[in-house]
Write a structure and sequence with these properties.
Protein name: Putative glutamate carboxypeptidase 2
Structural class: alpha/beta
Oligomer: single chain
Keywords: Carboxypeptidase, Glycoprotein, Hydrolase, Membrane, Protease, Transmembrane, Transmembrane helix
CATH class of the largest domain: Alpha Beta
Radius of gyration: 22 Å
Helix content: 10-25%
Number of domains: 2
Largest sheet: 7 strands, mixed
Strand order of the largest sheet: 4-3-11-6-7-8-10
GO molecular function: carboxypeptidase activity
Shape: globular
Number of strands: 11
Number of helices: 9
Distance between the termini: 51 Å
Bound molecules: 2-acetamido-2-deoxy-beta-D-glucopyranose
Strand content: 15-25%
CATH topology of the largest domain: Glucose Oxidase, domain 1
Pfam families: PA
Amino acid sequence: MKNQSQPRLFYRIAPVPAGGAIIVTFLLLFTIYPRSTSTYHSLFLSLSSNETAARHLFALTRRPHVAGSDANSVAAAYVLNTLSSASIPSHITSYNVLLSYPIHRSLSLSTNSSAPAIPFDLIQEIYPDDPYAAVAADILPTFHAYAHSGTAAGLVVYANYGRVEDFAALKESAVNVSGNVVIARYGEIYRGDIVRNAQLAGAIAAIVYSDAKDYGGGIGGKWFPNDRWMPPSGVQVGSTYRGLGDPTTPGWASVGDCERIGIEEVVATGLMPGIPSLPLSSRDGEAILRTIRGKVAADDWQGGEGAPVYRLGPGPGFVHLTYLVSIEVN
Ligand SMILES: *[C@@H]1O[C@H](CO)[C@@H](O)[C@H](O)[C@H]1NC(C)=O
Ligand SMILES: *[C@@H]1O[C@H](CO)[C@@H](O)[C@H](O)[C@H]1NC(C)=O
Ligand SMILES: *[C@@H]1O[C@H](CO)[C@@H](O)[C@H](O)[C@H]1NC(C)=O
């Protein structure tokens, strides 16, 4: 019997990589300005009603506003304006931080290494009632921020949630991860750690998908905004950097001509991945899983109702993956 768990909450589809060129400073001021805490205490309570929370969330999520974009400075101005109009002393400070954007992505799948390859379009489709249909063109292509540039071709291995214990279980089952491409699902650990664990196990690339069991994936035909689940082509994007802040300035501020360490150095420490990776929708992830044979995965590695039987591989399903990044200080 398959493990039935409640699907998790819908994640925002618009890409929001970590880091940001503009930061609105106000928390620090709470301790600097000679105002009594009770003023801010009551101010915070007065600002955080359901109605205002809903209004601010709506305003901030109406458009994609990836770090470093014009839309993001509009969002920063909104926050500044909101705080200022509540009489909270606030200002905007600019930082020059390392940011990454996708230049090229491709992924194709064949049922074995000599069968014809079928490319995935890697597009999040617009659907009826899609509240973001009008701004779809502003949404960056699906990618993992700070992912490694590169091309990989290999047999696919299924690694459940990509945790340390999942790779240990693969090793125990004598499944060869080394030199192959890992497919793992979102939902238990940080995506940067999934890619890292795949790299440490010897994988040449990692694919991280949202399983319909965890995120809905269109089960029952209902998804955001009519239900809280992701649509079948919805992709969770985000960072794969495993540290905090700007990777090239660990421990100091990214201002002016400050000293910076090289990207290769960050990769060497393991904080940025050394293998390429891509995020995938539930629909595309399932298409790959259907091509994997070998041992049947354990019950708690299986999908939800209607999913195919998940197996461990490697292969014969075979993927070609390419990811090209633009990564620089902005
Ligand atoms: C805010 O909304 C939540 C969820 O609908 C509800 O449980 C809560 O009672 C509301 N709070 C107020 C103060 O209206
Ligand atoms: C590979 O796939 C092709 C097309 O589906 C099939 O004709 C061929 O027999 C397969 N080869 C192997 C070794 O399974
Ligand atoms: C593991 O798979 C890789 C790539 O398919 C292959 O080169 C390697 O020989 C395999 N290792 C073992 C122990 O089977």
